[in-house]
Each structure stands twice: as C-alpha cells, then as structure tokens.
Write a structure and sequence with these properties.
This protein folds into three domains: about 10-105 and about 315-330, Rossmann fold; about 110-115 and about 190-310, ATP-grasp fold, B domain (D-amino Acid Aminotransferase, Chain A, domain 1); about 135-185, ATP-grasp fold, A domain (Dna Ligase, domain 1). The protein contains ten helices and 14 strands. The radius of gyration is 20 Å and the shape is globular. The protein is α+β, with helices and mostly antiparallel strands and about 325 residues long.
Length: about 325
C-alpha cells in the first residue's frame, strides 16, 4: 500500500478565507490539481497560480447544489474539501448525490456536523459529556445573565469572528442580542488561547497538533507557537470523541492561569493557522488526503516539533484591472 495517494483533482471551497487558501497551497505542493471555488470573484485563492478557479453561488443560494454537482461532473472532480463552514449544510444535503457520482467527502455524520456548527448545540453536547466550556445563554434565558461580568455575544452559527462582541454587562448583551443574527451569549474566559489541528481516522484514532494563539487579530492567529501539554491534549481528544468527529478539524480553547482547560469551539474544517502545523513537521494535508481516498492515515507522520513559531502578515497577492479579471473568470466558467 503506498504511503501517499497519487495526484487527484480536489475541489476546495471558501478559498477567500485563510483555511481554504492555505489548503490550496498545501495540496498544490503535494502535486494535486486544485479546483478553487468561492462566491467572490476577487477571492484571493482564485488568484493562486496553478489552481483551476471557479466562481460559484453562495452556499445559501438555491442554485448552489446543481452548480457544485455540475462542476464536479464537468471537471471530473475526485473529492471536495470544505474550507468554510457556510458550505457544510448544503454539502451535507448534496452528499448522497456527490458520492453516487464518485466524488468523495470526508465529514462526520450529519448530526455531528450540526452539533459543531451550531454553538448552542455544541455547548449542550460538551456539558452532557462533562467537558469544561464557557457558560452559554440563549435569548430566552437573558434574565439569568450575571449583571456585571465579561460576556461575549455571537451568532450561534457564526464563524471567522464575524459579529462577535465583547461586553462588560448584561445590559449591553441584551441590546446586542437585538442586532446579532440568531445570537447566543457566553461568559468570557481568559488565559492562553490555543488551537489543536486534528485528524481523526476512520478507526477513531486521533492526532492533534497544539498551537498557542500568541497574537489574535480579527479571529485569526497572527502569531502562534507549537506546544505540548497533556491536559490540553486529553481534553481535545475527549471533545473529538464527544462529537464523533471524523477527518480534518480543529478545536479551540483556553488554558487558564490555574492550569485548567476549557474548550470553546470545534470547526469541521482545517484551521487558518495550520501552515504552522506543517512547518513543525506534521503532514496534515497529506494524511488527510490519504484518509479521504481510503488509504491508512500514518499517525507517525503527524508528529511535530514544539517551540516552532509562525508569524502571519497581510500580503498583496495580485493587483490588476478588474475588467480583465472579470473577463478571465468568465472565460474559465463561473459555474453559476
């Protein structure tokens, strides 16, 4: 059995954000052909050299399923890897159709995915399993909020730190619940923030690479460093088992000043800062592709060096004439 799957045609969604953008780069380095898709024709991932760029409808557009299925057939796509949460619900519904066409997806079962992308449901699952996580209130429970405590108001289905607000009183939280779509309120926790880049194979065995989020800007780790702590690793693995995770995902949380650990979220996709994991020696994208196509995941190749750091910055990828870009995109087919 080869230790690496041969080159494949892999469609990556959400290439305008760091997770999908970085995944495109890693898959290209591994020799795969990447079909990069996004709803925004100016998405950075569409500008990468060597990808096949396509503009598709938004995930909530009724034309999304037929467009994605047709694109997979037209371009003989072997697999889809999700780079942004928005694409998960329609792809779950589309999964039987895609799989009947020979297109592979590696996602947990539908209930598991929904328990992760819905922050209220995620809180419920974790509390059922005795996993420490911030206290959470729904709009119907706002009278139970502590009067003067640090709180966070966010959409229960949000991602990428969008519409997230830090407040210092229940009064402010109640006001924001009128503005934030489908809100929840959580207690704000403090400590050392971390991300665990995880791969759960088809037998349930897990590899997790731990990264401190040393400097966070707009929800993204601008500076991060790999580390190893048994208490964090154990709770990450317990969280993955509680939600029945499968394939590629990431877990986030905090290590408190007293050494206790709390889990804040689990994303059913690669994290935006995963290039540090690969720089520290873990073959995350390569082993994900192996598992995606039925090859064994080699967990020995998911070990990593601690103390490796990564610093991100905003990069100007390309500058050009927008009319020429629109023509180039249209000439390659928008899929919409």
């Amino acid at each position: 059995m080869p230790d690496q799957t041969p080159p494949r045609r892999i469609l990556v969604t959400g290439v305008g954000a760091n997770p999908g953008f970085g995944l495109c780069r890693s898959l290209l380095r591994l020799g795969h052909q990447v079909i990069a898709v996004d709803a925004n024709p100016l998405a950075p991932g569409l500008q990468l050299d060597d990808v096949v760029p396509r503009v598709i409808p938004r995930a909530d557009d009724p034309h999304y399923p037929d467009t994605v299925a047709g694109l997979c057939r037209d371009l003989a796509v072997d697999a889809i890897v999700v780079g942004i949460e928005n694409d998960l619900p329609p792809l779950l519904n589309l999964r039987p159709r895609l799989e009947s066409d020979g297109v592979r997806l590696w996602l947990p079962d539908d209930e598991s995915v929904r328990n992760c992308i819905d922050k209220a449901r995620f809180h419920h699952v974790l509390t059922q399993h005795g996993i420490p996580t911030p206290r959470t209130w729904s709009p119907g429970d706002l009278e139970l909020l502590p009067a003067d405590a640090p709180l966070v108001v966010k959409p229960r289905g949000g991602h990428g730190a969008q519409n997230v607000h830090m407040v210092t009183s229940s009064r402010h939280a109640r006001l924001l619940c009128e503005l934030v779509p489908a809100p929840i309120v959580q207690e704000r926790v403090y400590g050392t923030e971390f991300t665990a880049d995880c791969l759960v194979d088809r037998d349930g065995r897990t590899s997790a690479i731990l990264r401190r989020r040393d400097l966070v800007k707009a929800g993204l780790a601008a500076v991060s460093t790999t580390f190893e702590t048994a208490a964090v690793r154990d709770l990450v693995v317990k969280t993955l088992h509680a939600v029945r995770a499968a394939g590629l995902c990431c877990v986030q949380g905090f290590v408190m000043a007293d050494g206790s650990v709390t889990i804040t979220e689990l994303n059913v996709r690669v994290a935006g800062g995963f290039p540090l994991t690969e720089a520290a020696g873990a073959d995350l994208a390569g082993q994900m592709v192996n598992g995606l196509f039925g090859l064994p995941v080699d967990h020995d190749r998911l070990t990593y060096r601690t103390g490796v750091f990564l610093t991100n910055y905003v990069e100007t990828l390309r500058v050009g004439d927008a009319t020429e870009l629109a023509f180039a995109t249209a000439s390659k087919g928008t899929g919409s």
